[in-house]
């Protein structure tokens, strides 16, 4: 059996530690081509460019553009014959329904779905540790081992198992370690609906704040078992099978409004 062809992208930038850890892990069994942002493009969602300067990189290509740009550029021009798009590993979790549209990591996978190419988005949940901010952690490739192991397993087995016949992409979030310090278990999940955004207006400025992250640190989250957030906070690898196009349903009340529009 031939090696799978992988387009690897992310939103933290091609030089990020998580990206290199994932590239090295997948390269042990796959032909991996990097098409990733040249700089940090976190939280840009599916923002697109009309022109993106491309530079050759030892891992593939670096773009002066967004993660969605990278997927389109890769699938259309730079490596069009890949079997799968893999995006990550993002330093910081991408969990909850409200986060999905903001995340550049997830958006790269969403973009792939419109090309009918299977995709996996991967992120690492990095909890704060006392006075040490989460941004100061996960600085070595080994810190991403739970995510790289999950990535390798899913890239090898998801497509042959028929997973992508029932979904467009997988949103995967891994803890740094399992609950007992050992390997983490894997759980199929759905995005949490918890939302705790607030805004305060003062002196001509509005300060926006996402309170979910503090609640995660204390364990004060109402998410039931089965949600992505509950799984990863409790030390499991969360795998959410998702679809990219917005779904529509027959809506009798809206039908009635449309019928009387010109009356």
From TrEMBL:
Keyword Transport listed: no
Protein family membership: Belongs to the SurE nucleotidase family.
Pfam families on file: SurE
Record GO terms (molecular function): 5'-nucleotidase activity; metal ion binding; nucleotide binding
Coiled-coil region(s): none
Keyword entries, A-Z: Cytoplasm, Hydrolase, Metal-binding, Nucleotide-binding
Function recorded in the entry: Nucleotidase that shows phosphatase activity on nucleoside 5'-monophosphates.
InterPro entries: SurE, SurE-like_Pase/nucleotidase, SurE-like_sf
Residues given in the record as a divalent metal cation binding sites: 11-12, 42, 90
Location(s) in or outside the cell: Cytoplasm
Gene Ontology cellular component list: cytoplasm
EC number of the protein: 3.1.3.5
Cited PANTHER family: 5'-NUCLEOTIDASE SURE, PHOSPHATASE, PUTATIVE (AFU_ORTHOLOGUE AFUA_4G01070)-RELATED
Reaction catalysed by this enzyme: a ribonucleoside 5'-phosphate + H2O = a ribonucleoside + phosphate
Main subcellular location of this protein, as a coarse class: cytoplasm
Domain of life per record: Archaea
Entry-linked Gene3D superfamilies: Survival protein SurE-like phosphatase/nucleotidase
Protein name: 5'-nucleotidase SurE
Cofactor binding summary note: Binds 1 divalent metal cation per subunit.
Domain Survival protein SurE-like phosphatase/nucleotidase: 6-188
């Amino acid at each position: 059996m031939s090696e799978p062809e992988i387009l690897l992208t992310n939103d933290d930038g091609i030089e990020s530690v998580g990206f290199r850890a994932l590239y090295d892990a997948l390269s042990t069994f796959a032909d991996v081509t990097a098409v990733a942002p040249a700089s940090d493009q976190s939280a840009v969602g599916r923002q697109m460019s009309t022109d993106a300067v491309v530079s050759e990189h030892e891992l593939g290509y670096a773009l002066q553009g967004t993660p969605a740009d990278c997927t389109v550029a890769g699938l259309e021009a730079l490596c069009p014959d890949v079997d799968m798009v893999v995006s990550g590993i993002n330093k910081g979790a991408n969990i909850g329904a409200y986060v999905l549209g903001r995340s550049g990591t997830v958006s790269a996978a969403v973009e792939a779905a419109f090309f009918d190419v299977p995709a996996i988005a991967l992120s690492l949940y990095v909890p704060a540790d006392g006075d040490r901010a989460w941004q100061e952690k996960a600085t070595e490739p080994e810190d991403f081992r739970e995510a790289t192991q999950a990535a390798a397993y899913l890239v090898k087995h998801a497509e042959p198992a028929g997973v992508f016949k029932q979904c467009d992409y997988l949103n995967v979030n891994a803890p740094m370690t399992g609950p007992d310090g050992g390997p983490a278990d894997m759980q199929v999940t759905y995005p949490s609906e918890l939302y705790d955004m607030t805004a305060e207006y003062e002196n001509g400025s509005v300060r926006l704040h996402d309170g979910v992250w503090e609640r995660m640190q204390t364990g004060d989250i109402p998410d039931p078992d089965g949600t992505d957030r509950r799984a990863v906070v409790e030390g499991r690898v969360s795998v959410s099978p998702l679809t990219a196009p917005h779904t529509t349903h027959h809506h009798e009340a809206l039908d009635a409004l449309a019928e009387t529009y010109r009356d």
